[in-house]
UniProtKB/TrEMBL annotation:
Protein name (record): ATP-binding cassette domain-containing protein
Lineage: Bacteria, Bacillati, Actinomycetota, Actinomycetes, Pseudonocardiales
SMART domains: AAA
Compartments, as annotated in UniProt: Cell membrane
ABC transporter domain location: 2-247
One term of GO molecular function: ATP binding
InterPro entries registered for this protein in UniProt: AAA+_ATPase (IPR003593), ABC_transporter-like_ATP-bd (IPR003439), ABC_transporter_ATP-binding (IPR050763), P-loop_NTPase (IPR027417)
Keyword flag Nucleus: no
Keyword flag Transport: yes
Chief location bin: membrane
Membrane topology recorded in Swiss-Prot or TrEMBL: Peripheral membrane protein
Pfam families associated with the record: ABC_tran (PF00005)
Length: 317
């Protein structure tokens, strides 16, 4: 679906250097990234501010021409075959609208139908589906400028899907949305991937988007890929420690002498104990068995490291 090899983009910027002097500088926004995305994948493309995410997305969608490297999306060269590609993919920019500001949402959709030459039946079916799943009913006839951010984003996603794209690229789709709107959008996108098989590639600073939606996470910084893989694997790789919370049936002494285990906290006379262990040396199941032999266990929970911590470590390695 996406093939990127040594893709790079440099910008020339002019800076003031004194009262009358200006210097020209080269900014490497993307410094030669390589990756591929298969049909049906859900990929989160993340990185700190200025890492080169939007520039990559713009090259993938044909808005920017790469300075170096090669990119193919749906087998097409995005910047050379932009119109053809637009019929195969959907793009949503959280910070930019593709809708007509003064037109009611429904009329924006109708215009897009003509632009993409979508058969009326297909259009009606897809619009009906989005209206139901995204709850557009109450504001389909409202001009876009009068919509709330959450309503407009639902409109943007619908607009990107009306021509039935194989790939949906989203740049910060949940930015500025309240928790309910974020959740609704995530649920919709997850369903879109499962039921229609639409491939999803998204950039986001909200790591809950990644946890909820993406089976694969790519981390970039300074235009380089720092990490690429399933979230669970990256989590194990950078933070193999886990915390096991054990609730006993009756107070018990602090657990000692368990292999590779350290006590984090003992509460309520030992009724609840928190232990840290390394997943790569002992499994939670083995540990629970060993503990249960010492004193009857009422309940257990394994606390996974927070995704924010995982990503922070990935940024700094
Ligand atoms: N049109 C441009 N002209 C000059 N420099 C640019 C241009 N667009 C981006 N850059 C620079 O390229 C680098 C990468 O920018 P980009 O917008 O791709 O980052 P990003 O990862 O999307 O950041 P953010 O999370 O802040 O949106 C930054 O240093 C930015 O200043």
């Amino acid at each position: 679906m996406i093939e990127v090899s040594e893709l790079g983009r440099t910008f020339t910027v002019t800076r003031k250097a004194g009262r009358f002097r200006r210097t020209r500088e080269q900014v490497v926004a993307v410094g030669g990234v390589s990756f591929s995305v298969e049909a049906g994948e859900t990929v989160g493309y993340i990185g700190p501010n200025g890492a080169g995410k939007s520039t990559t997305i713009k090259m993938l969608t044909g808005i920017l021409v790469p300075t170096t490297g090669r990119v193919r999306v749906c087998g097409l060269d995005p910047s050379r075959q932009r119109a053809e590609l637009a019929r195969r993919i959907g793009v949503v920019f959280g910070q930019r609208s593709q809708l007509w500001w003064d037109l009611p949402l429904r009329e924006s959709f109708e215009l897009l139908r003509h632009i993409f030459r979508v058969p009326a039946g297909d259009h009606a079916k897809r619009l009906q589906e989005c209206t139901e799943l995204l709850g557009l009913d109450g504001f389909l006839d409202t001009p876009v400028r009068q919509l709330s951010l959450g309503q407009r984003m639902r409109g943007e996603v619908t607009a990107a899907l009306l021509h039935g794209p194989e790939l949906l690229v989203l740049d910060e789709p949940t930015i500025g949305l309240d928790l309910d709107s974020k959740e609704r959008l995530r649920e919709f996108l997850a369903e879109l991937n499962t039921s229609r098989g639409t491939t999803l590639l998204l950039t986001t600073h909200d790591l809950d988007d990644i946890e909820r939606l993406c089976r694969r996470m790519m981390v970039i910084d300074h235009g380089r890929v720092l990490a690429d893989g399933p979230l669970a694997e990256l989590r194990d790789e950078v933070t193999p420690e886990r915390v096991l919370v054990v609730d006993f049936e009756r107070p018990c002494d602090e657990l000692t002498g368990l292999p590779g285990v350290q006590t984090v906290k003992v509460e309520a006379n030992g009724l609840r104990q928190q232990l840290s262990f390394r997943r790569d040396t002992v499994t939670a199941a083995t540990l629970i068995n060993l503990i249960a032999q010492r004193s009857p266990v009422h309940d257990v929970a394994v606390i996974e490291p927070d995704i924010d911590d995982v990503v922070r470590q990935l940024y700094h390695r």
